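Retro notes (design track)

What went well: tokenization of the new backbones is finally stable.
What didn't: we kept losing track of which sequence belonged to which structure.
Fix going forward: every design gets posted as structure first, then sequence, in one message. First example under the new rule, 85 residues:
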């Protein structure tokens, strides 16, 4: 199962969306995962634009279940499991 989350920072007074500092990955693993997910996000944006233009092309480009994403999920589960080898 894959889930996508969007977090929005809200101004406590106006309740409007407010800008926050961008995420800055620091370790090589964080940078790799960030780059992989950025590619998925970019493909999703392009697929939405293509869909708005009336094109049926790229309908699977938005799917987050790419091989890289699957591998990332598997490796992250192994990293977080204390009994894994």
């Amino acid at each position: 199962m894959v889930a996508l989350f969007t977090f929005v920072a809200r101004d406590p007074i106006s309740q409007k969306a407010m800008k926050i500092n961008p995420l800055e990955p620091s370790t090589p693993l964080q940078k790799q995962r960030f780059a992989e997910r950025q590619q998925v996000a970019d493909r999703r944006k392009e697929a939405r634009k293509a869909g708005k233009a009336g094109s049926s092309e790229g309908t699977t480009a938005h799917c987050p279940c790419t091989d890289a994403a699957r591998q990332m999920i598997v490796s992250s589960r192994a990293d977080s499991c204390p009994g894994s080898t």
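Added context from the reviewer: The chain has two helices and no strands.
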